[in-house]
Amino acid sequence: RRKRESSEDCDILTDLFASVFGSHCSVLVVIHSQLQFDGSTLPPGHCYLGCVVKDNLQKAFFIRVIDPSTREMVGEKKLTKHFEYDMPSDIVMTFLSEHGITCLGFRDLEERNIFVLHVDRIVQMQQGRS
């Protein structure tokens, strides 16, 4: 892709996240995929944006899922402050949330691995602050 198109895509996503989450939130990881979120009724075959979000007002991390076609948040779970996760299978990642275990299912192992790579960066940053 050309640099200009990539920059325009970034601007579009920045505007989308600000309109859905507010300017007080920082989106740390995003994946565009056919996600399954915590047993939700998200229609199969439809792609969503799965995000790890730091909400600066609440001083907390969240897993939030956006439907890009409607520009609406369709799922949210507040994570524990320790930002713990596990990978019980090749395409499932679980997080410890305030109300138990939160699951995020990916289309394939490659997508999950990309997401995990970025989540690991966040975990390392959090551990460095502890």
Structural class: alpha+beta
Radius of gyration: 14 Å
What is the percentage of strand-forming residues? 35-45%
Give the overall average pLDDT: 82
Helical amount: 25-40%
- Largest sheet, order of strands side by side? 1-3-4-5
Q: What can be said about the biggest beta sheet?
A: 4 strands, antiparallel
Number of helices: 2
The SSE order reads: HEEEEEEEEH
Task: Chart the SSEs and their pairings.
Layout: H1 3-21, E1 25-33, E2 36-37, E3 48-55, E4 60-67, E5 72-78, E6 85-89, E7 92-97, E8 100-105, H2 109-129
Antiparallel strand pairs: 1-3, 2-8, 3-4, 4-5, 6-7, 7-8
Word description of this protein:
With 130 residues, this protein is α+β, with helices and mostly antiparallel strands. The protein has a four-stranded antiparallel β-sheet, with helices on both faces. It has a four-stranded antiparallel β-sheet with strand order 2-8-7-6, with no helix packed on it. The longest helix is centred in the last third of the chain and has 21 residues. The relative contact order is 0.15.
